[in-house]
Amino acid sequence: MTDSRPQTRHADLLAQMNDRTREVFRRVVEGYLDSGDPVGSRTLTRTMSEKVSAATIRNVMQDLEHLGLLDSPHVSAGRIPTQLGLRMFVDGLLEVGELTEDDRQRLDQTTGSDPDVASLLDRVGSALSGVTAGASLVLAPKHEAPIKHIEFVSLGPDRALVVLVFADGHVENRVFNPPPGQTPSSMREAVNFLNAMAEGRTLSELRAGVERQIAANRRDLDTLAAALIASGMAVWENEGGPYERLIVRGRANLLGSSAEAAELERIRSLFDDLERKRDIAEFLELAEEGAGVRIFIGSENKLFSLSGSSLVVSPYMNADRRIIGAVGVIGPTRLNYGRVVPIVDYTAQLIGRLLSGRT
């Protein structure tokens, strides 16, 4: 469940501001999100709803800086919002726009007759990246039909194929790296062990059962067979290798938008972590903690804290209204949240409809 206390504190702080202070704060944040540049007092004198002097605005800005909501990147420069300021703006002042017809059409055009779920999600992710000019993330659902049969096939000393046949006819073939020293007998033992448990169980249920059985029967089960089972199950959970649950598109949008070498390195670090699948589980947990679109700014979650980026993420559901995956956009902290939020929301609904077979 999402903690509502920060939003409550922000609402209280906003309520304590007078109209002038609130307007100065809002215009500084909106100006920064629009241009990426500090906003100065002279600029605000031309846009404020009431006639006020630059000196008066500077005093208000100093008060907001004292509250930790604004910052001065350089002496005599304008102000930019802090992470706390952006958070308060998003929670209390953000005006979410409507999805434009152009954005809707660009996303809708990703649909097609291709039955392959991976291809569909790849197209949606690419379109989402193009529409938002950010990096898109799509966490694909696991195939959760009951399992009919499992087979391991040796392809060499350090490569093996796992074949997973589901009761609904779906077949998955994955190449993985078995533990060193595996033998035909250890592979047969692993297959027999798994198939004795597998029929009628989903992959998640089988994994939980295997872990319990390995723990209970470790003395009786050959060590190599146990390692082979663990290795194969890891492949089915898609932790690494060419078959990934997490589809990342638009990486160049972030790399190309940052001129600072240190920022480039932080963003590369972010994507290296993603590609190693270190935090897939946490990514889904972030989406599942609250219904609808959620916004994480900067260091608010450890998954993206190194990059100084923001994440806008939403879960998507199947026909039974069960969360099966998530979709999101990574961008700079000065992301156009008002535009991106409805885009991510619509994309999550679109994926849910497509995977549920609804139009």
Automatic annotation (TrEMBL):
Protein name stated in the entry: Heat-inducible transcription repressor HrcA
Task of the protein: Negative regulator of class I heat shock genes (grpE-dnaK-dnaJ and groELS operons). Prevents heat-shock induction of these operons.
Family membership noted in the UniProt record: Belongs to the HrcA family.
Keywords: Repressor, Stress response, Transcription, Transcription regulation
Highest taxon of the lineage: Bacteria
Domain Heat-inducible transcription repressor HrcA C-terminal: 119-341
Source organism per UniProt: Oceaniovalibus guishaninsula JLT2003
A single GO molecular function term of this UniProt record: DNA binding
GO aspect biological process, one term: negative regulation of DNA-templated transcription
Statement: the UniProt record of this protein carries the keyword Repressor: yes
Coiled-coil residues: none
